[in-house]
Amino acid sequence: MGPVVTTEFTPWLSLFGGALIGLSAVMVMGLFGKIAGITGITKGLTGLLPGAGGPDDRGWRLSFLLGLIASPVVVLLATGSFPQQTVPENLPGMAIAGLLVGVGTALGSGCTSGHGVCGIARLSPRSLVAVSVFVAAAIVTTTLIRHVF
Amino acid sequence: MRPILGLIAGLTFGLGLILSGMADPAKVLNFLDIFGVWDPSLAFVMGGASITAFVGYRLVWRQKTPIVGTRFDLPKDAEIDTPLLTGAAIFGIGWGLGGFCPGPAWTALAMGSAGILMFLPAMLIGIVLGGAAKSLSIFKVKGA
């Protein structure tokens, strides 16, 4: 999927950024009483699927997504440049990856945020199993692509 | 009021993804590459996020109702069933392929890389297809 770019180990920054993600999940629970799952929030955008929530939830879900989309622009305004990012350049591969992520998160009822952050925080057995499965599948996939094929 | 609060929560989440490194597919793929250029940072992201949410949830659940909501709406499904396992495996393959999960896919949009412009529309189509697949008979739990 493209050249391998080495990245620096950033334990403190990652821990701090993680705490902000957790804080956002607590805000969504404390304010709206909902799980901060990006898959569920994205479904709310389509408004077509079961689990999309009622009209009451559509407004905050849409503005939550706008906040996610705007966050790199906030970084640009504050620092003068967009955040560091290296996106794989194999475009058919990225389309397939996107399709798999969409199908998988809808079928499995959650992703890294809903099952990962929120599910672990609730000590949900379903989410703990889901996280183990998707992390294992991702490690196997990346390893096969980088070291076998 | 609710849309403004949603925007603040979304910005907090997005800035957390960016600062933690989780918004950068290179960092995600290097976390998954445990037999290569392994970067363990993402374990710290998940740790920081889960511990904060674990403590924070227990504080907010002391209230009777959410501040601008009617009730705490928690998933009731307990069963570890076929859709959960199949879906998680499919998601993991896509995540390991592209380095994006749904949150970082949204934060990457404004930076407009060719990769995300392919990934994000495909992900939205996938969510609709996955939702439809979930209602197929092969995924129905016996007796449900």
UniProtKB/TrEMBL annotation, chain A:
One of its GO terms (cellular component) is plasma membrane. It is found in: Cell inner membrane. This is Membrane protein. It is a multi-pass membrane protein. It comes from Pseudosulfitobacter pseudonitzschiae. InterPro entries: Sulf_transp_TsuA/YedE. Belongs to the TsuA/YedE (TC 9.B.102) family. Keywords: Cell inner membrane, Cell membrane, Membrane, Transmembrane, Transmembrane helix, Transport. The keyword Membrane applies. It comes from the Bacteria. Coiled coil: none annotated.
Automatic annotation (TrEMBL), chain B:
Keywords: Membrane, Transmembrane, Transmembrane helix. The chain crosses the membrane at residues 41-61, 82-100, 106-132. InterPro entries: DUF6691 (IPR046513). It comes from the Bacteria. Pfam families: DUF6691. The keyword Membrane applies. This is Membrane protein.
